[in-house]
UniProtKB/TrEMBL annotation:
Keywords recorded for this protein, A-Z: Membrane, Transmembrane, Transmembrane helix
Transmembrane portions of the chain: 12-31, 51-72, 239-259
Name of the protein described by the UniProt record: RING-type E3 ubiquitin transferase
Highest taxon in the source lineage: Bacteria
Amino acid sequence: MENKNRASKAVYVFLGVVLFCFLYFILWLIFKEKMPLHLYLYEISKNYDRYAERAFVILPLMFFVAVVIQLLRPTSAKRFLRLQSAIPTSKIKSLAKGLVEIEGALIIRQPLISPVDHEECIGYYYTIENISQDSDGKNSYSTIHRETQCNAFQIKDDTGIIDVIPEGIELVLLNETNVRSSGHKRYTETLLKNGQKMLLVGYADSDNGVPFIRKDDHYKVLGITSASGISVWNNYQPLLRSFMFTCSAIIIIIIYILIQ
């Protein structure tokens, strides 16, 4: 959920930089030596072919590096996905203190009312987006508000029940439950509901001998996702990594050939 918004911001920043450079070049063509960096731009204009050849290599390389940095940038959702694939699923009855993964049905304790469809739920991820339309009538969306709310709940498997303290919880790879549009805004909510079968990664702790799950202080993770959805992710993740590695290798080879 966060990743799409970050990608949108990155696109806007990139377009802003391109627009600034274009406008600056137009002003330089008009005012010449009155503009800052006049000598550098004059040198580039005199040796346009040489600099264009360099740009043909450097710009794809910069784009490739930016994509790699974005993919490798640590987020709580990425930590959750990495940890859940490495941690074996434990039974609630045999939990040991520390980072754990459990799978079971959610049990509501104190209900929340969702902001979009006013459904009773355990928790929700809620966004408000501005809707804009281009000349072709295609809609685009920009997030102006997001929030996650969740009350304390329990999770149950075939061996027992355990409390979950939801402070800092993140809903990962979950589809939107309800979507409504009004005027130039779109309202979206993703709900945690009673009885849903979910997979949870967090820290198993206890208070006066009573066990509970909370956010892990070291890995900064308390995440929950669909038990069925995460199995699909785990099956296709190796293919995605292989594809990204192959693309990276091809791009590096192409850049090497262009440099020669």
